[in-house]
Structures are given as structure tokens and as C-alpha cells.
């Protein structure tokens, strides 16, 4: 199925991106969203951002005369076959450990409900609270921040939720 994403034609199969077309200043190309799974027997695929892009590969052309329709068709058929089989590369989500301030840890040991509520928060909200409390230079400020944050944590709210338009 043809659709438009990122101002370019993208071809999908069962709701998943398979391939797309893109043009750039000095070249145009065919994108393969799970191109890393292709055999690339002709050594035609490029990783657009080495070290960042895991699955996406592109076949680049500087002119229409460079396009070998048989090679392109073989790559497209392999990409479609892989998609029909359900093969895909999933990006690993980076796991960043939240550094819990000492004051918060000590309250957790006394208040299991607070620790349970904190653990139920999204990782982003946990990080907001941990950084907000831990970034204060003086202990009394960290304790004051913790006291103000405790009811919001217990309610499952984020530190900055009151500023969001929900």
C-alpha cells in the first residue's frame, strides 16, 4: 500500500513500513526500513547514519541511468518476503538507571507505599523527582523538596504535570 510519510512515498505491508523513496541534494534513493536483514549480494545498501541507524538501509542513485531494475526488483522482493515472514529489527530501548538521592532512599525504607507509588511512575517522572530532589546543594532543601513531592508521588503525578495542558 502506498502512503506518504515524511513528505515522501512510503510503501507498507500489513501496516508496517517496507520501503520508501527519498530525494536529496546530490542523490535520490530507495529506503528499506529493515534493510539490515537483506542479503545485499550486490553490495548496494548504505547505512545513512553509521552507529545510529540499526535497521534502515538505502540504495543511492545519482541519475536514472544508474538504476538496474533487475537488482532493484530483487531487493524489493526480498524486503517484501521478509515483511511477510514478520522479520524485523527492533530498536533496543536504552535503559538509564535513575540515581535515587539518599534522602529519598531513607524515606522509602520507612514508607513502603511511597516506594510502591514511586516505582509505579514512568521512568521519566522518576528521573524528574530524583533529579529535582538530588540537585539541591543543601540537605534541608533536599528534605523540603522531598516533603513537597511526596503527596504528588503518592497521587501518581509528575513533578511538572500542573504545567501541562491535559
UniProtKB/TrEMBL annotation:
Pfam family, one: OmdA
Superkingdom in the source lineage: Bacteria
Organism expressing this protein natively: Leeuwenhoekiella polynyae
Gene3D superfamilies: 3.90.1150.200
Domain YdhG-like stretches: 2-80
Protein known as: YdhG-like domain-containing protein
Amino acid at each position: 500500500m502506498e502512503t506518504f510519510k515524511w513528505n515522501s512515498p512510503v510503501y507498507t505491508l500489513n501496516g508496517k513500513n517496507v520501503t520508501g523513496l527519498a530525494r536529496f541534494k546530490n542523490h535520490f534513493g530507495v529506503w528499506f526500513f529493515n534493510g539490515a536483514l537483506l542479503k545485499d549480494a550486490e553490495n548496494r545498501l548504505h547505512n545513512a547514519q553509521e552507529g545510529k541507524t540499526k535497521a534502515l538501509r538505502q540504495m543511492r542513485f545519482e541519475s536514472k541511468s544508474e538504476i538496474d531494475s533487475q537488482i532493484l526488483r530483487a531487493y524489493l522482493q526480498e524486503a517484501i518476503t521478509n515483511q511477510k515472514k514478520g522479520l524485523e529489527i527492533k530498536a533496543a530501548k536504552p535503559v538509564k538507571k535513575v540515581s535515587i538521592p539518599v534522602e529519598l532512599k531513607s524515606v522509602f525504607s520507612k514508607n513502603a507505599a511511597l516506594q510502591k507509588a514511586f516505582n509505579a511512575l514512568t521512568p521519566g517522572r522518576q528521573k524528574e523527582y530524583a533529579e529535582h530532589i538530588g540537585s539541591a546543594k543543601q540537605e534541608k532543601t533536599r528534605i523540603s523538596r522531598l516533603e513537597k513531592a511526596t503527596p504528588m508521588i503518592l497521587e501518581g503525578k509528575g513533578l511538572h504535570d500542573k504545567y501541562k495542558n491535559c
